[in-house]
Design a protein that fits this description.
This protein is of the alpha+beta class. Helices cover about 30% and strands about 15% of the residues. A hairpin with a 2-residue loop joins strand 4 and strand 5. Bound molecules: iron/sulfur cluster (2 copies).
Length: about 180
């Protein structure tokens, strides 16, 4: 299977803005911050194969700080052995065309329930985008593009396993706001 082709198509489908223009200008790029109010430093997870195929050597991520998280220390679904966790080189000047899936899909996440894919919002999350409750401002193409991107990505079995696992956790913790 051509994983790189799948990622390239997904990046294209997901090259849509949440609102007209750049929503980050209205909130000070809140979801790009790399340190939270309590001082906790955080980066972002890449999907299985995404770092190697789409990010390594491209210049968006500070590769000297990239971490490999493995099953030994982190909870992961069966079938996923490691995930890359990285930090942006400059989170105030994003190279937007390179931004990873996690940044494209936010504030939506893919959710699989009874085998059906939908997009939902997590109630408990790190960022709390100020536009979550202002759906009337969303670009109408955003949800369509993001859903199509996830349909592509779910062809990769390790990604599907991850999304199934995260969906189960979400249901268990009642951490879902359906659209
Ligand atoms: S927090 Fe929401 S409004 Fe702000 S940049 Fe992120 S997605 Fe856009
Ligand atoms: S890749 Fe870009 S959009 Fe994503 S967190 Fe970094 S600076 Fe923000």
């Amino acid at each position: 299977m051509d994983y790189k082709g799948i990622f390239e198509r997904a990046y294209r489908f997901m090259d849509v803005n949440l609102t007209e223009g750049n929503c980050g200008e209205s909130c000070g790029y809140h979801c790009c911050r790399n340190i939270d109010e309590s001082g906790k430093i955080f980066g972002l997870y890449f999907l299985p194969f995404e770092y190697e195929l789409m990010q390594k050597g491209k210049g968006l991520i500070d590769e000297s700080r990239t971490e490999v998280h493995t099953k030994i220390a982190y909870e992961m679904p069966k079938g996923v052995r490691k995930l890359y966790y990285g930090f942006c080189k400059d989170n105030k000047n994003c190279i937007r065309e390179l931004r990873p899936i996690q940044c494209r899909t936010y504030p939506l996440v893919p959710h699989l329930e009874s085998g059906v894919l939908s997009l939902v919002i997590e109630k408990n999350q790190e960022h709390q985008c100020p536009l979550i409750q202002k759906r009337e401002l969303w670009n109408t193409e955003f949800e369509v593009g993001i859903l199509n991107g996830w349909k592509e990505l779910l062809q990769i079995s390790q990604i599907k396993v991850m999304i199934e696992y995260e969906s189960e956790e979400r249901i268990k913790k009642e951490n879902i706001q359906y659209l």
